[in-house]
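Any chance you'd type out a single protein's sequence alongside its tokenized fold?
>
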Amino acid sequence: MDAIFLQILNGLDKGSAYALIALGLTLIFGTLGVVNFAHGALFMIGAFCAVTLSRILSASFITIDETRTDFLGNPMEVQTPYAEAWFGPEIGASIIDWAVPLSILFAIPVMLLVGFIMERGLIKYFYKRPHADQILVTFGLAIVLQEVIKYFYGANPIPTPAPEVFRGSMDFGVMLGFDPNVIIYPIWRLVYFLFSLSIIAAVFGFLQFTTFGMVVRAGMADRETVGILGIDIDKRFTIMFGIAAAVAGLAGVMYTPINPPNYHMGMDFLVLSFVVVVVGGMGSLPGAVLAGFLLGILESFASTTWAIGLVPGINQIIIYLVAIVVLLTRPRGLLGRKGVMEE
């Protein structure tokens, strides 16, 4: 039983990333009808927002410490972060330590801007084009974006640690009634799961309980009728594209301590997340979230030693096998709507 709980926990943090990226993909498809293969790149850009802010906050200058000497007896040169010089050693060190959570504030306007530029500068010209054209152009955009990141940040992963208070592991098994030291789990992975739940709840709450969200949902169901009523639905859909970009970016920001950012991480998650969207049902927001968590947990169980020993390589193909089974039995996905992608 303890092994089962551990694998469920392992699946939830990866499933959280799948669910957030798939949620953004579905928002864009549901509002604009665009199959956005550049959405994984938005996840990557969010991760590098955290890297950028961490580097900015860690920027330092050289000072001479007369109280310390090197082996030749000369005063030592000391790297002093600007944050510590401006705010004091304790506060400055705390600001640097909390770079990843602070990156949320940095990433939101950046991702909204990136989403707006992407939609107004490119995507809007492909609204009425075939889905194949949309896939090709957005996939090309994703490649361009990852090469830009590679040029400025290099090809190697960049470790970006979580705040010190969230490093290490906790005895999660005790909270579930197990014996001590049975289920030890990294604290930040739990933080990421709870963060994902809060973002998902915020998106659904925004769409369900605000006037803006209600108009967007009406536009998703019948765009022409909403336009006849005099509502500028295109403007609202552009804002939703920005929100979808921000959701993917925030998923990337908080994932950096789990998986050090690299220039191809967007592609790594995009294909899997698109499979998640298809399994959940194209255009279905609840389906995207449900499928994200379910497939994350299945992938976790498929990565265990006994599963790989039984079927070598099963951890690499389990998501695709599930997608095949679901689409053969339910062509619209788990919660897909009639008529979506069926023309």
